[in-house]
Specification:
The complex is a heterodimer of chains A (119) and B (116). By secondary structure, chain A is mainly beta. Helix content of chain A is 0%, strand content 50%. In chain A, strand 7 and strand 8 form a beta hairpin. In chain B, the strands form 3 sheets. In chain B, strands 2, 5, 6, 10, 11 and 12 form a 6-stranded mixed beta sheet that branches. Chain B has a 4-stranded antiparallel beta sheet with strand order 3-9-8-7, with no helix packed on it. In chain B, strands 1-4 form a two-stranded antiparallel sheet. In chain B, a hairpin with a 4-residue loop joins strand 8 and strand 9. The chains are: A mainly beta (119), B mainly beta (116). Chains A and B meet through strand 4, strand 5 and strand 9 of A and strand 5, strand 6 and strand 11 of B.
Chain lengths: 119, 116
């Protein structure tokens, strides 16, 4: 079935560096993908909507210059955390909907998530 | 505005007990979907169920059952005869027709611990 895959699953980076997380739809083309962030013991919060071929739409309070999103193809969206700091350490997870799957709602697929630790 | 509330932050039960996780939602849309996801310590979200706003039938899947009541805007989840493997964080979530159902808004989650 359709799968959304993220890479890397875990990454540790030094403070001040940038790190890129990839989100791929393996069996379908996704014009829109979503990025969520989850701090320890908290819920998943939507960060931004990634639109293929256009600029991402960020939720209120999310710094677009810090969290760069690129959706250059129908199967790949990337999230780059620039100048990462320890407070950016979090679990990042993406989602995508298969537009050709029957029905709506349950055709939203989530990636496995990426644990980011900034030291 | 949409909002999902899960009043129970943490629940502990002894194995084989039944447990109900509460979920109350708010939305102005008349068409929406409700979900339950399980998140084990590994972090990956496990899809459990989706319910369309027009379908208020309760559903049972093995030890899992869901009670959807539009009158009280609730979508509660019951685990019967709980097992240690049920220990996880459970999220209730909502997506609306107004956002093409793509945006999934999560509740705060309920951490369930099943004690052997």
């Amino acid at each position: 079935g359709a799968v959304v895959s993220q890479h890397p699953s875990r990454v540790i980076c030094k403070s001040g560096t940038s790190v890129k997380i990839e989100c791929r739809s393996l069996d379908f083309q996704a014009t829109t993908m979503f990025w969520y962030r989850q701090f320890p013991k908290q819920s998943l919060m939507l960060m931004a909507t990634s639109n293929e071929g256009s600029k991402a739409t960020y939720e209120q309070g999310v710094e677009k210059d810090k969290f760069l999103i690129n959706h250059a193809s129908l199967t790949l969206s990337t999230l780059t955390v620039t100048s990462a700091h320890p407070e950016d350490s979090s679990f990042y997870i993406c989602s995508a909907r298969d537009p050709l799957a029957g029905g709506e709602g349950n055709t939203i697929y989530f990636g496995e998530g990426s644990w980011l630790t900034v030291v | 505005a949409q909002k999902v509330t899960q009043a129970q932050t943490e629940i502990s039960v002894v194995e084989k007990e039944d447990v109900t996780l509460d979920c109350v939602y708010e939305t102005r849309d008349t068409t929406y979907y409700l979900f339950w996801y399980k998140q084990p310590p590994s972090g990956e979200l496990v899809f459990l169920i989706r319910r369309n706003s027009f379908d208020e039938q309760n559903e049972i899947s093995g030890r899992y059952s869901w009670n959807f009541q539009k009158s009280t805007s609730s979508f509660n989840f019951t685990i019967t005869a709980s097992q240690v493997v049920d220990s996880a964080v459970y999220f209730c979530a909502l997506s609306e027709w107004g956002t093409s159902y793509d945006k999934v808004i999560f509740g705060p989650g309920t951490s369930l611990s099943v004690i052997p």
